Amino acid sequence: MARPSRVAIVGGGITGLAAAVRLRERAPAGTDITVYEQSGRLGGKLRTGELAGGPVEFGAESFLMRDPAGGDSAVVALVRRLGLAESIVHPSVGQAALVVDGGLRPVPGGTLVGVPGDLNKVAAVARPAADADRDAGRPLLGPDADVPVGALVRARLGDEVVDRLVDPMLGGVYAGRADDLSLAATMPALARTARVEHTLVGAVRAAQAAAPRTPGAPVFGTLAGGLSTLVEAAAAASGATIRRDAAVRELHRTATGWRLTVGPTREAEYVEVDAVVLAVPARPAARLLAGTVPEVAATVGELDYASVALITMALPEPELPELSGFLVPATEGLLIKASTFFTTKWGHLRRADGVALLRASVGRYGDETSLQLTDEDLVATVHREVSKVLGVSLPTPIDRHVQRWGGALPQYAPGHLGRVAAVRAAVRAAHPTLALAGAGYDGVGIPVCVRSGETAAEEIITALGGSAA
Fold it and tell me: Could you tell me which residue ranges the Amine oxidase domain spans (predicted)?
């Protein structure tokens, strides 16, 4: 009788855990799965904490409910399989605002990540360049072209649309700049239609029309018990051996599989497995690949990341507008780039004692000196700047928390998707029992990371001779 396969998953974030669950669901019975997490905590950027006696997210706060085809997103499907569907809750307030000329204005409707499909709807926030988006008789992009988002939008609609709409929207998701980020990687639907349509507004409308929608259906969701409940449930359902504080320092091919070097140099542990899923950020993945697939390691390691800090304050009975929060264009000259009114946005977090939870994010790619401030200075600056934007003096916080996420958000330069495809093709051809997964390759957001982990698991099952059906 053949022994069960042994699979190592390097990285205990939601990508790695999703891979572990999928392996348990579809790999042959008895498959030995071990998750190696270098820190003492699972979940990566999913972290539910407590502030002023109540729960609050110190990392990602929500997920998309639908996938691009209109069905359940990968994380919603996972939540259902884990028996957590009844815990899904949706925002009570969906309207957000933009800071423009020091004041708040509603985020206009009809845009795709800030790129307008109706110029009249954005006129109160940004003035599109006159007659710039003309039909030149050819598609905006060639069949395989990829460009920075900012370059395309500036050329078609002018600087204000980028600086006041697109840049803060992308900054809220990626902590990046529209002038640096790949259109194909960050707005794939718009990239597809831009290869057909002759105007940017036409491309936005075509992308919106192609996206299935159910009127009134919620766009975002989270879990009433906090997103850490998803982490815990996934770890339990995977049946995997969980190794915390277990850094994988080296990865080498053997005659029958792989050898992992785990732990500190003086007390190194050597583990033999049949297959490996690398579910860690690009740079640590590149270090592990260097000894095995050196021809792709350099490409993987080129991906840069932005660091951010999330500052959460518990405020006694503050005067907050009925908004989910606001985004801040870099042109406003503020340290903060976004703020979320947690207890306004999420009805399940509202408290009888009137304490409100407010979170702000700090840190933009290429301008991260703000993250060198002390926790106390960050809290004071956020308190002052939010008060200024709202035009009120916020009360003194009764509690606060500063969460620093170093190297948290990948920055996808133009050509990213092609580079990832080439890397994966090379790895698959040389080492089919090695799979790469995570935000560094496939995109940010919980659903994308879950899908990435599940896809990697299916590749491993197939490579080991099983069926991923």
Answer: 14-461
